[in-house]
Amino acid sequence: MRSMTGFGRGIFESEELSVLVDVKSLNGRFLSIRLHSAQEIDGELDLKIRQKVSMYFLRGNIEIKINYRNQKPLEFEINHSLIKGFLQTVNKMKEEFNLPGELEVNSLVLLPKAIIPKQMQESKVLEEAIFHALEIALSQVERMRETEGSLLEGNILKHLKQVKKLTTLIERRVKRFNKERFQRLRDKIGELLSNVGLELDESRWLQEVVYLAERSDIGEEVTRLKSHIEHAYSIISEKNDIGKRLDFLSQELMRETNTILSKAPDIEIKKLALQLKDEVEKIREQVQNVE
C-alpha cells in the first residue's frame, strides 16, 4: 500500500550546470501533473518529463518545480536570417523614401533576438542534468509514499478489525434480542388474553412475529457487511492500485451501517452501530490518501 502524499528534492551540480528539482504529490482522484520552471522548458522536454513522472504515479496531484543555472559564461550566436532581413528592409526604406543616415551596430544589438544563446549543444546536457535530479527527487517521493503507506495500512487494518468485531456483536445481539423480545411479547399477550378468558391464537401469533421480524430485520445488512469486510482484506493484500476500490468499499460499509442504525430494534444494537459507524468513518478518512 502506498500513500498519495510525498516530497522529494533532487540536485545536480557540475562545472557547467546547476539543477534543482522539487517533486510534491498530494491527494487526487485522478493523475494530474503540473510543471513549473523559472526558466524556459521546451515542449519536447516538458513532454518527456511528464512521461517519466507518470511512470511513478497512478493518481494524485503532482507538482514539479525545476530551476537551473549555467555555471559558465553563456555563449551567443548571431541570428543571421533576422539581421539580413532587417538590413534589407532598412535599405529598401532608405531608397524608397530617400532617407539619409547610417545604421549603427547598437541598433542591431538592441534588435529582439538578433543575438541568441547557443542552445543546440547545451540542450542535451540540460536534459540529462534535469533527469538526473528528477530521478533523485522521484526516488525520495517513492520512499516517503511507501513509508506512509505502511502506516496507513496498519491503521486501516486496525479499524477494519474493529468493524468485523462489532458486526459479529451486532449479529449475536440481534439473534438474542429477537428471541427474548418475542418471548416477552408472547407472555404479555398470553397474560392479557388470560385475564379476559381467551387463548392465544398460534397462527395469528406467528403472523405477527413474521411482521415484527421483517420490520426490524437487519440480517441482510449484516451479511453484506461481512462480505464487504472480507473483500476489503482481499483488496489490501494486493498492495498496489487499491485506493479507488477501498474508497468505494468504505462507502458501501457506511451505507449498510446507516441502514442498521435506522432499523436497529433496541438501544444496545444502536450503541454498537454507532461505534461501527465511527470505525467505518475512520477507514473512509484513511483510504482517501491511498493510491
Structural overview:
This protein has eight helices and six strands, in the order E-E-E-H-E-E-H-H-E-H-H-H-H-H. It has three domains: 6-73 and 119-148, Ribosomal Protein S5, domain 2 (2-Layer Sandwich); 76-115; 150-287, no CATH class. Helix 4 packs antiparallel against helix 6 (219-237), helix 4 packs antiparallel against helix 8 (267-287) and helix 6 runs antiparallel to helix 7 (243-263). The strands form two sheets. A four-stranded mixed beta sheet has the order 1-2-4-3, covered by helices on one side. Strands 5-6 form a two-stranded antiparallel sheet. It is elongated. Helix 1 (43-54) links the parallel strand 3 (31-37) and strand 4 (60-70). It is of the alpha+beta class and 291 residues long. The mean pLDDT is 85.
How are the elements arranged and paired?
Blueprint: E1 6-13, E2 17-26, E3 31-37, H1 43-54, E4 60-70, E5 76-78, H2 80-97, H3 105-109, E6 115-117, H4 120-195, H5 202-216, H6 219-237, H7 243-263, H8 267-287
Parallel strand pairs: 3-4
Antiparallel strand pairs: 1-2, 2-4, 5-6
Helix and strand element order: EEEHEEHHEHHHHH
Largest sheet: 4 strands, mixed
* Secondary structure: helix percent: 55-70%
* Shape annotation: elongated
Task: List low-pLDDT spans.
Answer: none
Taking the alpha carbons of the first and last residues, their distance comes to: 7 Å
